[in-house]
Amino acid sequence: MTLAPAFFYLFAFVTVAAGFMVIAAKNPVHAVLFLILAFFNAAGLFVLLGAEFLAMILVVVYVGAVAVLFLFVVMMLDVDFAELRAGFMKNAPLGAFIGLILLAELVLVVGFQMVRPGALAAPSAPIPAPGSGITNAEAIGRVLYTKYVYYFQGAGLILLVAMIGAIVLTLRHKEGVKRQSIAAQVARGKKTAIDVVQVAPGAAIVPPARASQ
Amino acid sequence: MDQLQAYWPLYPELALVIGAMALLMLGVFRPEGEREAEVIGWLAIGVLGLAAWFVLQQPAGTQQLFGGAFVVDAFARFMKVLTFAAAAVALLLSFDYLRQAKALKFEYPVLALLATAGMGMMISANDLIALYVGLELQSLALYVMAAMRRDDVRSSEAGLKYFVLGALSSGMLLYGASLIYGFTGSTSFTSIAAAAAQPGAGQNIGLIVGLVFLLVGIAFKVSAVPFHMWTPDVYEGAPTPVTAFFASAPKVAAMALFMRVALASFAGIKPQWQQVVTALAIASMALGAFAAIGQSNIKRLLAYSAIGNIGYALIGLAAGSPEGVRGVIIYLVIYIAMTLGAFACVLAMRRSDGMVEEIDSLSGLAQNNLGMATVLAILLFSLAGIPPLAGFFAKFYVFAAAVKEGMWALAIIGVLASVVGAYYYVRIVKIMFFDEPRERFASIQPKAGLVMGVMGLYILLYVVWPAPLVEAAGTAAKSLF
Predict the structure, then answer these.
(1) A155 dihedral zone (left: phi>0; alpha: psi -120 to 50; beta)
(2) Which of A38, B171, B324, B455 would disulfide-bridge B319, Cβ 3.0–4.6 Å?
(3) Chain A contacts of B103, Cβ < 8 Å?
(4) B383 near B301, Cβ under 8 Å?
(5) Using CB atoms, which residue from A122, A154, A165 is nearest to B134?
């Protein structure tokens, strides 16, 4: 049982340290990599809390999609970070103020829990007790595909619209673009792929004209 | 089979969604071309007809699905048929225009179908999550449709503006929804109604702040002042048939949502939302009347006209009585007919070198094309509220409901605003009939001509036989109380 606190302190320390490095790193690529480290450790904290579904989602969505997107953006856009950093001291009071508000909100939330422990104890779909043999991914699946199936399908439709929209607004059919045709590649045989050319000494190799694919 | 029958109330939306996906597959796997896109467009109109037929086949009474998240009652059925019909007419108007603009793609009818499915979900929503999912499905498809002509700067700008402001309004709506959930303990409208009916709910600050934010989010979608800023720019920038679509079907769905939220879930704290709705109504009517005067672009003018008309419709909601809701429903039907007819006329404003949108180019239309000028004059007189055209009765029902509830001031402001509004509507009639004729428009395409004629006749002859609409609207309104 003493292992869990040890892991908690390990994950928590690395999360905070990585979070600090995200804003302290000189190189923006390093900052994104530290962000990924912070996400992984936060996922570890979720596992310790018994919320393994949330941990998986954090890794899949935040590391797999969001952070990789950040990396792409940082690498592809030519952002002058030195210039961005120049305004740091000017905006520091504002940042500190927002940080204070967040801190106060956290204190209020935690304090509220301590003053009235029953305040948040009425979830509409209770999490099964540990040891009942139901993992929380399974518990979510049970309500997601029964009670909430309408919303789930509706959300799926929204994603379909987003996909159609992205394609309609960006896809352009250009003329003269070479595309991979797997059927054509597979269908290539000795006849179409190999030319036997007689080369006269001292002359250049002239390949016979072939119908382009 | 029993399983399938249990989902009978959901069939209209299922038909739209499955139809949209089937048409999407058809469009992807068939050779691309404008003819194919138009065939898919006609099939989409067929799917809308099928969905409307499913709605009409549903038995009377109230059915609920998914633990009460999806409700079908007489009100939902009426609004769905109206929405589907408006979407079908707007689609019908779009083919010719988009073909000329080289923007006719098969995705357009598919997105329109998905947006309409979202509207059906909004109309039937009886839960905060269902409300949001339906609203987002509708809005996201509309953003893409606004930006459909991606090589046109104004169209892209319209799509982007609509998207950013729509995202903002979604944020406000969600913030309100989370507060309501926090203070009532449920997302279901039925439970929220029970919480709001308790004594002292009117003093529950959290609930009221949540309600106000929720109403702000919906007011964005119906473009009520002061949340109307996107409307003129989006109406002007989006391709004209898309604008016709925006001005018709989504407005019905959003107003239906507005009415259900206000009357079905917050009936217990009616005085609180009545203030908000009254303020929205007065501001919308005033801005719609005064801001439209200076417009020279007919699409912008119709945008301000839409804002003003939503203001009049909100009077009926502010009254909060069955008569008021009946008034709103009748208002919406007549408004949709007038708007679609007016947009059919805008689509007919076409010269050999492309579309024209300036009001001045209508000058002397009566001498070039008397038929179109007459229809447009009928529609404009009706929008101005001149008897015996349908627009007069639309306004009459909402004003009468407000007076019956003792809201004299609101009714008088409405009458004054419609007098101001009459100025700019009638000014266009004067330009058409008494100014010097300009260059002729190209001949009217049969589809636009058909829509123009049908809507003009309906507006003109409504007075002869108003009973069916009034009765159906009355039945629909009763199911909300």
Answers:
(1) alpha
(2) B324
(3) none
(4) no
(5) A154
CB atoms B186 and A124 under 8 Å:
yes
Tell me the sheet residues that pair with B70: B65, B125
Is the Cβ pair A151, B114 closer than 8 Å?
no
Backbone angles phi, psi at B358, to 5 degrees: -80, 140
Per-residue model confidence (pLDDT) at position A104: 93
The full set of domain ranges for chain B reads 1-265, 268-481
Task: Count Cβ atoms below 10 Å from residue A181 Cβ, excluding itself.
Answer: 10
Q: What is the pLDDT of residues B358-377, one digit of tens each?
A: 888 888 888 888 888 899 99
ipTM surpassing 0.95: no
Amino acid making up residue A84:
L
Helix count and strand count (H, E) for chain B: 20, 4
Locate the chain A residue with the closest alpha carbon to B105. Answer: A168
Contact A154 B137 (CB under 8 A): yes
pLDDT in tens, A89-140: 778 889 899 999 999 998 988 877 666 666 555 555 566 666 677 778 888 8
Range B147-165 average pLDDT: 89
- Give B163's contacts (C-beta < 8 A, 6+ positions apart): B143
Record the tokens describing residue A127, joined without a space: 């999490």
Instruction: Indicate the DSSP class of residue A206.
Output: -
Is the pLDDT at B341 greater than 90? The verdict is yes
Give chain B's contact residues with A (Cβ, < 8 Å).
Answer: 17, 21, 24, 32, 65-67, 69-70, 105, 107, 110-111, 114, 117-118, 121, 129-130, 133-134, 136-137, 140-141, 143-144, 147-148, 150, 159, 185-186
DSSP single-letter state for residue A132? S
The shortest C-alpha distance from B226 to chain A (Å) reads: 28
Beta carbons of B310 and B222 less than 8 angstroms apart: yes
- pLDDT exceeds 60 at position B130: yes
Higher-confidence position of B284 and A85: B284
**What band does A207 get if pLDDT is binned at 50, 70 and 90?**
low
Mean pLDDT estimate for chain A: 82
